[in-house]
Amino acid sequence: MAEKTLVIVESPAKARTISHYLGKNYIVKASQGHIRDLPHDKFGVEIKKNKVKVKYVTLEDKLPVIEDLKAAKAKVKRVIFATDPDREGEAISWHLAKTLRIDPEDKCRVEFHEVTKNAVLDSLKEPKPIDINRVNAQQGRRILDRIVGYRLSPFLWEKLMKSDLSAGRVQSVALRFICDREKEIAAFVPKEYWEIEGVFLQEDIEFSAKLISRGKDKIDIPDEAKAKEIVEELKSAQFHIQNIRRSKRRKSPPPPFITSTLQQEASRRLGFSPSRTMSIAQQLYEGLKIGDTIVGLITYMRTDSVRISDLAIEEVRKFIKEHFGDEYLPSKPKVYKSSKSSQGAHEAIRPTSVERTPEKVREYLTHDQFALYKLIWERFVACQMENAVYDSISVDVVGNDYLFRSSASRLIFPGYQIVSGKEEEEDEIPLEKLDRDKPVELLELLPSQHFTQPPPRYTEASLIKLLEERGIGRPSTYATIVSTILDRNYVIIDDHFLKPTPVGMTVSDLLTKHFPNIMDPNFTANMEEDLDEIEEGKEDWERLIVNFYQDFEKQVEEAKEKAEINNILGNCPICGKPLVEKRSRFGIFIGCSGYPDCRYTRPVTRSTGVKCPKCGGDIVGLKSKSGKYYYRCSNYPDCDFVAWGRPTSAKCPKCGYPLVTVRSKKGNSYRKCSNPDCDYVLLGRRRGKAAKG
Q1: Domain count, the chain
Q2: pLDDT tens-place string over residues 226-264
Q3: Which residues are catalytic?
Q4: Spatial contact of 168 and 148, defined as CB atoms under 8 Å apart
Q5: How many H-runs (helices) and E-runs (strands) does the chain carry?
Q6: What is the mean pLDDT of the chain?
């Protein structure tokens, strides 16, 4: 037998990169993801007493892949699994070992956190057994999710009479956050308040200051009458500068990216959805052709650790000194603290070589790849640079015991901000020229009315931040959580914000009422900690499953008895009988349960949460015969409103019709008016560019 080694990874892209590093004694193949899973048409889990029996099945579309791997195995002396360094990667290796009849306890597993030549070659020197604790943590999560989904989804179908509904252990909690926030907004009662700004003059220096307090009491101006009363009292007051405070303010660089913060920043800066961010990051991680070589540009992108390797620290400090100078280099490396649940062996998301600057690789990357790589590279370099330093000044002006305050700051050393070339220089007001001993003249008092605002709806980024803060989900699941509730039409994106649909609200309320544990964020977070303990070998995965299943089954049976049927599809407008979902060779549609006596039908629609500008009906989305979505009024055919772009809550400033989001041929999104007789177009809405029209 030839002295060859078969190396198996998940993706063909990763396989191509690794093949580039290894010699002729290696064969590199890709499993193309999981090759075994729980069955689609059965529960697949048998739970008896204290034992859990899992019935995995080989995925049908992976049969040719498995045959290819078996044929390759027959030609080599040993097999190495080099799947991703997390639970999913470990589970894929375990399933591959079982299928290829390799003992998981053999030294058949290698790990690396970056797809570079040195990292791959070093890992092959130290193979180890498959980590069964990590596998069990993945099995535990998968089975918990199967139990919840397999039992709750049919419950929803029965009680809400709609067959495309689903519930999940984590997605349902995320949905609850969004629905609870919507209820807060609906219940919010705005409260009026007023502010007073004073415009003052000292010699030739004019400055403004905000009214802060009277004596020791914070100022409270509830209405216009009170504002006018204070203004009248202040008109005759003599003002002087009571205090001038100067200080240095230092602003620290943000830590290097982890999965959640990368998704948040890519959403804020680039307009990327979490799933889009992870897809592009995967490409950067698995390897791209850069000049004459193929190399992974970033470290593993599913991580909750801000740790940086000593070698990477040494490289970036050298880079900072050479390219920015000693004044930008701290005396010692900056160290950031990871969360208690983070996996210590993992690193933060960083470039595999700081010497591969964004500009050096730009010509080899797509627009999206370059934008995300630049974001990651700049954050990594910045996190090891000196703080930015500001000169800050605060001036207190007093008259009739009323205190006005004005503050300003000026950037005097950019520190880490120099990396992006966008130093945050705050507006400079010449307060430093003011003299405490000179008189101050009041020029003008400007009262202004305000109202308290309700809490904002979550964006994809802020929802992920909340999930991370509450300990719900892990780096590998954040993007999936968000995409699932969007795909189910439980939530829509309206002007970047997540807004629950009526179906989403109904599902959340029903589950919260009858399954309080499943919908409890603390319960879900504790379950995540239990899975972490399984990975650490501190908890038995079967015991966790059995205990959960026994309690959960009781809740399901009780809910099936107590919950009332609520047909969210409504009744037939012709005969009054309940509407039901039906299937034909063309797909799902809604029809009357009185068929064939009543032949009423209508297509399945998706809510947009936007009102029709013509009649006030709901604008809904439908699929055309070509598979593309279009939008029309729910009162069709009585109302003929139609649009091809997705309507938003933003109104056209020219005619009042909803603006719709459309994509150009280059893939860039912009907004235009949905009124065919209006030419208003809003370009570059994320960048604040000027509008046309």
Answers
A1: 5
A2: 999 999 999 999 999 999 999 999 999 999 999 999 999
A3: 300
A4: yes
A5: 17, 30
A6: 91
User: Do 597 and 575 contact (CB within 8 A), yes or no?
Assistant: yes
Q: Which of 685, 186, 267 is closest to 460 using CA atoms?
A: 267
Q: What percentage of the chain has pLDDT greater than the value 70?
A: 94
Higher pLDDT, 568 or 482: 482
Q: Are residues 177 and 104 in the same domain?
A: no
Token pair, residue 314, equals 């040494």
Coil, helix or strand at residue 324: helix
- 674-681: long-range contacts (C-beta < 8 A, 24 or more apart)? 674/613, 674/641, 674/643, 674/645, 674/647, 675/613, 678/652, 678/654, 680/652, 680/653, 680/654, 680/655
222-231, 333-342, 557-566, range with greatest mean pLDDT: 222-231
In the block, tokens 């964020």 appear at 521
- Confidence tier at 423 by pLDDT (50, 70, 90): low
DSSP strand pairing (402-413 vs 205-214): antiparallel
CA 545-546-547 angle, 5° bins? 95
Q: What is the SS3 string spanning 536-591?
A: CCCCCHHHHHHHHHHHHHHHHHHHHHHCCCCCCCCECCCCCCEEEEEEECCEEEEE
Pick 339 or 94 by higher pLDDT: 94
> Which tens digits make up the pLDDT trace of 387-416?
999 999 999 999 999 999 999 999 999 999
Distance (Å, rounded) from C-alpha 618 to C-alpha 631? 10
- Concatenated DSSP letters for 591-613? EETTTTT---EEE--EEEEEE-T
Q: How far is CA 59 from CA 39, 93, 113, 145, in A?
A: 8, 15, 28, 19
Report how far residue 371's alpha carbon sits from residue 373's, in angstroms, rounded to the nearest whole number: 6
Identity of residue 162: K
CA 11 to each of CA 16, 30, 92: distance values in angstroms, whole numbers, following the listed order: 9, 5, 12
In one letter, which amino acid is 584?
S
Strand partners, 54: 45
Q: Quick check: 270 and 496 in contact, CB under 8 A?
A: no
632 and 670, same domain (yes or no): yes
Binning pLDDT at 50, 70 and 90, where does residue 618 land?
confident
- The CATH code of the domain that includes 203 is 2.70.20.10
Q: Is 359 left (phi over 0), alpha (psi -120 to 50) or beta?
A: alpha
- Show the tokens assigned to 297: 């540009």
- Could you tell me the pTM of the whole model? 0.83
In contact, 108 and 102? CB cutoff 8 Å: yes
One domain for residues 487 and 552: yes
Please tell me the predicted confidence (pLDDT) of residue 653: 86
Structural domain that includes position 633:
605-692
- Distance CA(328)–CA(554), nearest Å, equals 62
* End-of-domain residue from the set 101, 130, 159: 130
Q: Residue 284's domain is classified under what CATH number? A: 1.10.290.10
DSSP string, 138-178: HHHHHHHHHHHHHHHHHHHHHHHT-TT----TTHHHHHHHH
Helix axes 541-562, 132-160, angle to 10 degrees: 0
Instruction: Judge residue 524's burial from the number of C-beta atoms within 10 Å of its C-beta, 0-12 exposed, 13-18 middle, 19 or more buried.
Output: buried
